[in-house]
Amino acid sequence: MRTTVGIIGAGPAGLLLARLLHNAGIDSVVLESRDRAYVERRQRAGILEQGTADVLRAAGAGERMDREGLRHDGIELRFDRTRHRVDFPALTGGRSVMVYAQTEVCKDLIALQLREGGPLLFEAEALAVEDAGTDTPRIRFRHEGREDVLECSYVVGCDGFWGVARKAIPAGLTQVFERTYPFGWLGILADVPPSHDELVYARHERGFALLSMRSPAVSRLYLQVPDGTDPGAWGDDEIWDELERRFETADDWYLQRGPITQKTVTPMRSYVHEPMRHGRLFLAGDAAHIVPPTGAKGLNLAAGDVVTFARALVHQQETGSPELLDAYSRTCLRRVWQAERFSYDMTTLLHRAPGATAFEDRLQLARLERIASSRAAETDLAEAYTGFPFG
Ligand code: FAD
Ligand code: DHB
């Protein structure tokens, strides 16, 4: 089999890239190791930056998002039993975010790809990327019990943190920057209307909590838990009791409970792999970088990478100049590091590390007070949350 761009992975990065290339008249093949149902059900991110929503729209994949997604003009920071709203449009010249789940983005892009785009093979596991440093890179993969080879002009590794693409870059040429955190998030889905019409990020001495949503009828909530926690160890009532404590306010706000339909624990990690390109192999999304989820940046960074790649390839095909492809890693990493910084700041602002001292507690509160009382500090948060420009 032969194609111009071989894409490994049908997460948001791989699927959006296939769509962007299709729209530009460039052929691609997507290889995905899992089956379609698994990819469409995997519960992950929920917030699209304005730039990501705009890209989906421009790609012809925004119709259901605009119908069913929820535009959010702010978030609430909750600490010391008080509430502070951050008003995005007022602080950023009109920017906002969209609550539309990653599962739905993937469903929309898969349907479009199968209807209009090039081949998208499920249960096709990439085994290795070969000859990345040459003009004829290849992906070795297994599909329907047989090994096969996809010959490409370019390979884009969109295969997430546990994928194989990154391994094709010689270790001697790479640098890895990493930090793990001694806590994770216990995430639940619950069949109950969200108790607030915007997201609530709560800092509490017992740990962080986040109230989010999937629709006007389905809540998504997260609790900071110790690293390695087994989600089954938490009973449903225990989860609601703990959420109630961490969201407690001095006013009459209250948390509405409902049946919990899903429980998972996500570890927290910061990770950057440099460079994001080797020869004709390009890494995009979680294959190249991970952020802790507190800033809601993971999916948005993935979108930014593939927009940058698609533009660079179109530029190369239109002008013959490889300058944008050559700048790919540098261009992406500028945005990646801004998101790493913001995600780290949000994580350390709102979580309670095991063994945190009273001094550190007071500093967290002082940082939150600063955001609540200074338009400059609040603007910094609003600009980062609604998104950095796509490079
Ligand atoms: P992925 O979505 O990981 O997609 C990679 C795809 O490649 C997968 O479909 C995988 O099956 C496939 N693949 C892997 N190896 C191979 C192979 N060898 N051959 C073929 N296919 C392969 N972000 C937020 O902003 N908020 C959140 O709440 C949040 N929660 C998360 C929870 C979890 C458990 C995880 C893992 C991530 C979460 N993220 C969250 C991050 C966000 O979901 C990711 O940043 C986003 O999915 C990145 O998209 P991607 O396409 O780069 O990678
Ligand atoms: C969601 C996840 C996040 O990491 C975040 O910061 C906000 C919302 C969510 O899953 O809805």
TrEMBL record:
Its EC number is 1.14.13.2. The keyword Membrane does not apply. Residues 2-343 form the FAD-binding domain. PANTHER family: P-HYDROXYBENZOATE HYDROXYLASE, TRK SYSTEM POTASSIUM UPTAKE PROTEIN. SUPFAM superfamilies: FAD-linked reductases, C-terminal domain (SSF54373), FAD/NAD(P)-binding domain (SSF51905). The keyword Oxidoreductase applies. This is p-hydroxybenzoate 3-monooxygenase. It comes from Streptomyces collinus. NCBIfam families: PRK08243.1. InterPro entries: FAD-bd, FAD/NAD-bd_sf, RIFMO-like. Keywords: FAD, Flavoprotein, Oxidoreductase. GO terms for molecular function: 4-hydroxybenzoate 3-monooxygenase activity; FAD binding.
